[in-house]
């Protein structure tokens, strides 16, 4: 597969603040890479270096094999970029703004209008095309930014928090758009909303304090969680000792946790040993012992927890 | 070239898409006229020329050109659109020249709208139209120099008010450097060539020459080098500070 985005040991500091310490990554065609990290982790700075807005202090970035530092115009022409907050010239109408972008992207005459119309249609902006951008709602403004980024059908699409501040319908629409475009582009999306990674990304990178602290699929990140594949059962409080003992005796179970008693029921959570799948065993056990189960859930491990674990543990490691 | 023109076109559209253009043009035309008639004694002088009209241009530009220039880059930085502009396949110098040209053309339009003055003086007498043309040209060049300074200063800050005040101050000093008020301060102790050097930096002296119909190479060179220098500084500043 073609590698469309390459970053090689990028580093950037602003005065005494080291924003990006050492980031290397590669994104191939067809991939949607999620950039995760707490605020101030260096996500935006990395994107600004990839898009040529900022020059890195060290390291280099390539778009479609073209060095951003050496041939910025060519690299930028392969790229669609939605900066954080989707800035646009507020005193222009959506259509005239996109006309401007199309001209800069080298389209003229009929092909210019075709591209602008296509971008307006794709982002659902036809109805407000002749309104001034500053009069549009936040969701529409974001779509103008998106339209601007995808207008020339770029091979590489970099979006800084594309769904930030949108309502659920708008988020859904934007994610649909990303998925739709994914197969013939390399896309990088930064976010701190983890559900988004599950929804659209084929791969995720977690950045913390200017370094990559995790890299893998959403599934692989979840697997890092202790609760991944844990089985939770809700049973009558009276049976708790018997069930807990039986669960702990199962071969694949590492540990059994119990929660508080609520309305005469209690929740037990059996944590698997690494790599073990215990759901079937737990099911068989409960059936054999004829225990009445109110609820049984196989837990996936929330990405939120993964995120917290990864970013706080790296903090701990750094302080140590 | 294509990119420069695209940026210029967008900027010009932005001027005329907001009340800014109309307010500026009306005030410029009204003030130049008012100065010429009431302070310059256009009628009382009994001479068919536009001297009293052009004499006040430097002072008007001092106020009005920084007002046009202040938004050029400060607004882009404040609104974050600079990130958009600088990640499009346009080079920094193309963006800077494009924006500068748009503002300059716009001031040129405002200047052209003072044509009733020219008609008036031609109705009243037989002025030397060559001199008037040269004066218009000189006035336009001077506006360009003010504008380049303002554009450069505007790139230094996100705050348009600061951009305005700093640009107006720099322009004020450059205008004043030809007046006896400033030169007299140096004449007492500085060698003659330093006094001459300071005087030669004066917008006023060069403009006076041109508005008498004398277009000399040094004057042209002076204005164009001011424009080139400040636009170059503008490129450096935008490159350095675009993200700050």
Topology readout:
The complex is a heterodimer of chains A (320) and B (244).
Chain A: E1 3-14, E2 17-28, E3 32-36, H1 43-50, E4 58-63, E5 66-67, H2 72-77, E6 79-82, H3 94-104, H4 109-122, H5 138-150, E7 156-160, H6 168-181, E8 186-191, H7 194-200, E9 203-208, E10 211-216, H8 218-223, E11 231-236, H9 240-249, E12 253-262, E13 265-272, H10 279-288, E14 293-298, H11 303-319
Parallel strand pairs in A: 3-8, 3-9, 6-7, 7-8
Antiparallel strand pairs in A: 1-2, 1-4, 4-5, 9-10, 11-13, 11-14, 12-13
Helix pairs in contact in A: 3-4, 4-5
Chain B: H1 2-17, H2 19-39, H3 51-54, H4 57-69, H5 71-79, H6 81-86, H7 92-112, H8 115-124, H9 129-154, H10 160-176, H11 180-187, H12 192-200, H13 203-211, H14 217-241
Helix pairs in contact in B: 1-7, 2-4, 2-7, 4-9, 4-10, 5-9, 7-9, 7-14, 9-10, 9-13, 9-14, 13-14
- Shape assignment of chain A: elongated
Kindly give the count of domains of chain A: 2
State the separation between the terminal residues of chain B, measured CA to CA. Answer: 28 Å
- Please tally the helical runs of chain B, counting DSSP H or I stretches of 4 or more residues: 14
Estimate nothing, just give the exact number of structural domains of chain B: 1
Helix proportion of chain B: over 70%
Fraction of residues of chain A in helices? 25-40%
Instruction: Give the SSE order of chain A as H and E letters.
Output: EEEHEEHEHHHEHEHEEHEHEEHEH
- Overall pLDDT level of chain A: 86
DSSP strand tally of chain A: 14
In the CATH hierarchy, what is the architecture of the largest domain in chain A at level 2? 3-Layer(aba) Sandwich
**CATH homology-level superfamily of the largest domain in chain A:** P-loop containing nucleotide triphosphate hydrolases
Q: Indicate the mean pLDDT of chain B.
A: 88
Outline of chain B: globular
Helix/strand order of chain B, N-terminal first? HHHHHHHHHHHHHH
CATH hierarchy, class of the largest domain in chain A: Alpha Beta
Query: What's the alpha carbon Rg of chain A, rounded to whole Å?
Result: 24 Å
Read across the widest sheet of chain A, the strand sequence of neighbours is 6-7-8-3-9-10
Largest sheet, strands/sense/barrel of chain B: none
Number of strands of chain B: 0
- Percent strand of chain A equals 25-35%
């Amino acid at each position: 597969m073609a590698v469309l985005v390459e970053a090689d040991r990028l580093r950037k500091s602003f005065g005494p603040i080291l924003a990006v310490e050492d980031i290397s990554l590669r994104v191939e065609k067809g991939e949607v890479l999620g950039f995760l990290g707490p605020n101030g982790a260096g996500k935006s700075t990395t994107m600004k270096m990839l898009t040529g807005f900022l020059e890195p202090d060290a390291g280099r970035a390539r778009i479609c094999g073209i060095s951003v530092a050496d041939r910025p115009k060519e690299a930028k022409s392969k790229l669609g970029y939605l900066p954080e907050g989707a800035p646009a010239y507020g005193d222009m109408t959506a259509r005239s703004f996109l006309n401007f972008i199309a001209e800069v992207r080298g389209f003229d005459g009929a092909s210019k209008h075709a591209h602008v119309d296509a971008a307006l249609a794709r982002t659902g902006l036809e109805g407000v095309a002749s309104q001034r951008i500053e009069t549009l709602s936040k969701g529409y403004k974001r779509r103008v930014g998106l339209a601007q980024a995808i207008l020339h059908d770029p091979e590489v699409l970099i979006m800084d928090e594309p769904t930030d501040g949108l309502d659920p319908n708008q988020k859904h629409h934007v994610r649909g758009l990303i998925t739709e475009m994914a197969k013939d582009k390399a896309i990088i999306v930064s976010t701190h909303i983890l559900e988004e990674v599950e929804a659209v990304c084929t791969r995720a990178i977690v950045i913390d304090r200017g370094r990559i602290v995790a890299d893998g699929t959403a599934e692989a990140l979840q697997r890092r969680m202790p609760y991944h594949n844990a089985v939770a059962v809700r049973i009558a409080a009276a049976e708790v000792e018997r069930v807990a003992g039986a669960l702990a005796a199962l071969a694949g179970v590492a540990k059994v946790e119990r929660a508080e008693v609520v309305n005469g029921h209690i929740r037990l959570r059996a944590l698997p040993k690494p790599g073990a799948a215990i759901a079937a065993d737990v099911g068989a056990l409960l059936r054999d012992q004829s225990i009445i189960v109110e609820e049984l859930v196989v837990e996936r491990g929330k990405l939120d927890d993964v995120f917290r674990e990864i970013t706080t543990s790296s903090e701990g490691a750094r302080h140590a | 070239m294509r990119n420069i023109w695209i940026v210029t076109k967008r900027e010009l559209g932005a001027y005329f898409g907001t009340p800014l253009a109309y307010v500026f043009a009306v005030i410029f035309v009204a003030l130049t006229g008012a100065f010429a008639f009431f302070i310059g004694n256009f009628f009382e002088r009994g001479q068919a020329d536009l001297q009293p009209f052009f004499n006040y241009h430097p002072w008007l530009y001092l106020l009005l050109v920084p007002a046009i220039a202040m938004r050029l880059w400060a607004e882009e930085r404040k609104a974050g659109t600079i990130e958009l502009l600088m990640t499009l396949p346009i080079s920094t110098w193309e963006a800077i020249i494009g924006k500068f040209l748009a503002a300059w053309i716009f001031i040129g339009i405002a200047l052209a709208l003072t044509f009733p003055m020219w008609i008036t003086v031609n109705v009243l007498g037989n002025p030397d139209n060559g001199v008037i043309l040269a004066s218009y040209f000189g006035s336009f060049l001077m506006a360009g120099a003010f504008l380049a300074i303002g554009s450069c200063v505007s790139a230094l800050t996100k705050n348009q008010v600061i951009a305005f005040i700093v640009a107006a101050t720099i322009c004020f000093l450059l205008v004043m450097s030809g007046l006896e008020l400033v030169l007299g301060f140096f004449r007492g102790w500085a060698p003659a060539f330093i006094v001459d050097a300071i005087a030669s930096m004066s917008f006023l002296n060069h403009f006076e020459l041109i508005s008498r119909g004398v277009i000399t190479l040094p004057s042209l060179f002076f204005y164009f080098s001011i424009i080139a220098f400040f636009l170059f500084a503008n490129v450096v500043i935008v490159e350095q500070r675009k993200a700050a």
